[in-house]
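Input/output pair, single chain:
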Amino acid sequence: MVTALALLTVKRDSINKVAEKLADTDGISEVYSVAGKYDLVAVIRVKDNDRLAEIVTGSIRKIEGIESSETLIAFRVYSRHDLESMFAIGLE
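Output:
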């Protein structure tokens, strides 16, 4: 599994429309509206780098309203939620 974060700068009047299109894209699991340098963050979770490349260079680039993007590939996840759920198995 490959996870990546696409940090997107979007035209101000297009944020909701772009977010909805991203959320409807296969392989994008979540889209967050954020404050700061970027307007949206798309969480991409796919099987392999080839599929990631298709989404980043194909699907995302075709969405009108995106002005710029930066994609970060995740190497490892550090999540208290994931750790707690692993240790909580069978404790219900």
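The CA atoms of residues 35 and 42 lie 14 Å apart. The mean pLDDT is 91.
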